Structure formats: structure tokens, C-alpha cells
Amino acid sequence: MFIRRTLLQLPKWVKPYSSDATLATTPFTDLHSKLNATMVPFAGYSMPVLYKGQTHIESHNWVRSNCGVFDVSHMLQHRIKGPSTTSFLQKLCPTDLQSLKPFHSTLSVLLNKDGGVIDDCMITKHDDDSFYIVTNAGCRAKDVEFIKSELSNYPQGSGIVHETFEGGLLAIQGPKSQEAVSKFTSSDLSDLYFGQSRFIPLDRLGSSEKFHIARGGYTGEDGFEISIPDIEVARKFFLAILEDESVKPIGLAARDSLRLEAGMCLYGHELNEQTTPVEASLNWLVSKSRRSDEFNGSSKILSQLETPKSVTFKRVGIKSKGPSPRDGNKIFAADDKTKQIGVVCSGSPSPTLGGNIGQAFIDKPYQKTGTEVLIEIRGKLRPATVSKMPFVEPKYYRPSV
């Protein structure tokens, strides 16, 4: 049966994981305020949800057609290196990091002993046994403690150095992102493809340092994520790139609807410690080369892959009209209105497609694309359809064939 999580309630898609009354800030918080952003609590941070002069739909569509800059400095950045680092990370993750090429990135997950997801993460390999990792803001303390605990119990872990660091982290997303970023660096970004990274100078900004930039993001559009630990340079870059008429600052509202259209998971919604990658429809995270290996939760996860019928629920897409489905809405069978068959993980109106989209955990045999279901919204059962994801095809920048 599907798993339900208990989460704090703000706006339906804003989930703070910190109970601390004092919100943390990023290097850009005061700049967001000067840009007339509406600030909200998110994962223990004060974050911009929307900027004055932009509606949610306008912000969303701007990223799809131009370039949007997201402050993602609340995410936790890690460096981990030393002998046996690759084998250590492959104990925590189901992904083949051994064969990952230097300066290539992959999405992965940190797994507990039962195969549940501690957190999802972006892992970039810089060299053999040297990695840069970005994890979620809401899981900061949990992730650090988890890695520390796993490292203390790892026999070959004595030479591994793990550190976290703060600084500016910006996601620059949209079809005009390369043009916008290229104005500040002499590095040719045209041969940096999706899933690749490098260190680039922001020399046209007057800085002699080099900063890590990765091609990718959380919107389904072309784009970059750039890490700038030097706060002064980070703030200067943020303000300078906004001078470009094709670039606007974008907040959490559009970030959520963009990732939903791209069919991407959000931790605490589609991912949690009770749900395996297989149940979350992320089988591809378990590399084929690792399907006879041991890693956290491998017994359960590999068994689910070998015997798909044993997986009673999984993550699917849903589409509907009328009031939008939201996190926690119950899902019932269309042929038996008393039979609950699932729960909505997240949902939103789709600015690109019209109507509503969402992601849900749904039981067998109601997971097939095209299956009609009923969602309980505001005390009424409303029709919806199981749909394939992504809802909007990604536009990642890849080499031409």
C-alpha cells in the first residue's frame, strides 16, 4: 500500500523541515527583498516565492522562453575525497560512480538500510575518488549525520575527507541561459553538454577565480547551476546577470510548477525514507552494472527489480480539470468510489499545458496510463487520468547526432 507522510502545512507546496523559529538566509536574501520578492519560510530558510511585477504563470513562462535565475544557495554543498571514496559512495547509492567520467554528473539517492531514500542528490565526479555533491536544504542535518555515521562504520573510510561548504549557488535556467552566462566568462560553453561540468572564470566580471558550473537543472529546460563560494563575487554576478533584458529572478512558485511539468521528484513529497527508488519509479537510478552488487537496501531493491509484481504501488503522473489536486488528497477507484487506491504527492495547474498535473502513489492495478481515477478535493470526488511523465518534454542541451 502507498505510504503517507506527515508534513507541516504552509502553502501546499511549501514544506519547511526546520522547527527553528529563526529562519536562515542566503547570500542573496537582502537582494531579494530589494527586488520586492515575497519571502516565505522554506526548509528553514527565508526564500523568495514570487517577485513584484510577475505572476506565477508569467514567471513560469518566462523560464520556458527566456532565462530565469533561481537562488538555490539553501542547498547543501559537499566535497568528499580520498582513497576508497568511490566504493564508499557506492555503498550509500545504487548508481555506478566507478564508470562515471570525470566532470560528469548524475542524479542519485542516499539510501537507508531498508532501501528508503534518505535524500536525493546530484553527484559530480571530479576525479577518481573525488566528488562534489549537492543535497537538499531540508535534509541538511540528517544528511550530514547520515554520511558521518556511515563513514565511521566503513572499514576503508579512514582516508576519506568529507566537508560541507556554504556560498552562492545559482540555477540559471531557460533557452537563453547560455547566452546570458557567456557574457561573464571567456570559457566557451557551447561544448559543455547536459550532465557535464567544469570550472570557469568569471573574468569578464573582473574575477580571477574559477567556479564550478554544471549544465543541468530542475526545470526540464537547458541551463546551468553555478557554485560561487566567494560571496562578494556571487552577489556581483547575481546583480550583473539581471541587467540582461532576457533574464529575470524567479522564485519557488515557478520552480515547483516547472519541476512538476518535467516530472521531477521533490523530497518529502515523491521521495521519503519509507519509499524505495523502484516504488518512486526511479529504476534507472539503479545502474544495470550494479544489479548484482551490495549497497544499502540492495536486497529489497534488487528483489523489487527482479520481481516487479511484488511492487504494490508506484509513482505515476495524473492529469485533471477543475480544482487542482494537492499533496495529501486521497485517490479512489473510478469503479468503486469507496476504495482508496492512492494519494497525491504534489499537484499544480500547468501553465504550459493548461489543466492540472500532479504526481501520485497509486496501487496496482490502477497505474496504467489512461486509467480513470477519482481524487477527493474539497470534499468531492473529481475525475482524473493516470498520465505518463514528463508532462512537458525536456529541452536539455546535448550533442547533435
Tally of helical runs: 8
Quick one: overall form? globular
Strand arrangement in the largest pleated sheet: 10-11-12-9-3-13
Number of domains: 3
Under CATH at level 1, the class of the largest domain stands as Alpha Beta
Kindly report the CATH topology of the largest domain. Answer: Gyrase A, domain 2
The low-pLDDT segments are 1-20
Total strand segments: 19
CATH superfamily of the largest domain: Probable tRNA modification gtpase trme, domain 1
Provide the succession of SSEs: HEEHEEHEEEHEEHEEEHEHHEEEEEE
| Range of strand content | 25-35%
Radius of gyration: 21 Å
Biggest beta-sheet profile: 6 strands, mixed
- Which architecture of the largest domain would the CATH scheme give at its second level? 2-Layer Sandwich
Percent helix among the residues? 10-25%
The SS-based structural class is: alpha+beta
Mean pLDDT value: 94
Any descriptors?
401 residues, alpha+beta, Gyrase A, domain 2, Alpha-Beta Plaits, Elongation Factor Tu (Ef-tu), domain 3, 3 domains, 6-stranded mixed sheet, 8 helices, 18% helix, 32% strand, disordered N terminus, GcvT/YgfZ/DmdA, aminomethyltransferase activity, GCVT_N, GcvT_C, EC 2.1.2.10
Describe the structure.
The protein has 401 residues and is an alpha+beta fold. It has three domains: 29-73 and 167-261, Gyrase A, domain 2 (2-Layer Sandwich); 76-147, Alpha-Beta Plaits (2-Layer Sandwich), CATH 3.30.70; 312-387, Aminomethyltransferase beta-barrel domains (Elongation Factor Tu (Ef-tu), domain 3), CATH 2.40.30.110. It is 18% helix and 32% strand. It has helices at residues 29-34, 56-65, 85-92, 140-152, 177-182, 231-241, 252-261, 298-306; strands spanning 37-42, 45-51, 67-71, 76-81, 104-111, 117-127, 130-135, 161-165, 168-173, 197-201, 210-215, 223-228, 247-249, 313-320, 330-333, 336-349, 356-363, 372-377, 380-387. The strands form four sheets. A six-stranded mixed β-sheet has the order 10-11-12-9-3-13, sandwiched between helices. The chain has a six-stranded antiparallel barrel with strand order 14-17-16-15-18-19. Helix 2 crosses helix 7. It is globular and about 65 Å long.
